[in-house]
Amino acid sequence: MRFSVLFLFALPAAIDALQCYSGRLAPGNPQPGIDPTCKDYCFSIPFVYGSANGLDMGCGTDDKCTSEGLNDQGYTCCRGDLCNGAAGAVKCYDGIFKKDSEAKNTVNCPSGFCYKVHVDVGTQEGSKKGCATADQCSSEGKNKETGGYCCKGDLCNAASGRTLLLTMMLAAIAMRR
């Protein structure tokens, strides 16, 4: 009977646990482990060792993560099982801009999804861009709930939809020649 009582008390803690990739992703170590006991956040942080680039990943403790996104210590924090997966990590433009050409700030995005949504910037229409969590963007394309756009790929949230479509069409025509 003691074991069943202990099991019932341990079960909610296991259900609330978050799974995060944990360890170092670098050349020669392509697959980090998985830590199934994280609390609130997962993190990733880029590193350079010699000529190799990689990511350190793990559970986001209170000293590393207090909210989602890139923090001032360089950690990219996220919520959601295995959201810090480096295989899909991309760079996203991040911030609020009156014109797409103003976008300069970037953030590393372990979820692999960037977003762009139209917002009012003063009296003009602009856009808000950034890294989306896996919960916010489960696939590419227009998000019906937010009216925003989710995309995968480095800096895919750079241009307006029309500019992006035109660029893709011109590239396809150029490849045919």
From TrEMBL:
Gene3D superfamilies: CD59. Residues 1-17 form the signal peptide. It comes from the Eukaryota. The lineage of its organism: Eukaryota, Metazoa, Ecdysozoa, Nematoda, Chromadorea. PANTHER family: ACTIVIN_RECP DOMAIN-CONTAINING PROTEIN-RELATED, PROTEIN CBG09734. SUPFAM superfamilies: Snake toxin-like. This is UPAR/Ly6 domain-containing protein. The keyword Membrane does not apply. InterPro entries: LY6_UPA_recep-like, Snake_toxin-like_sf.
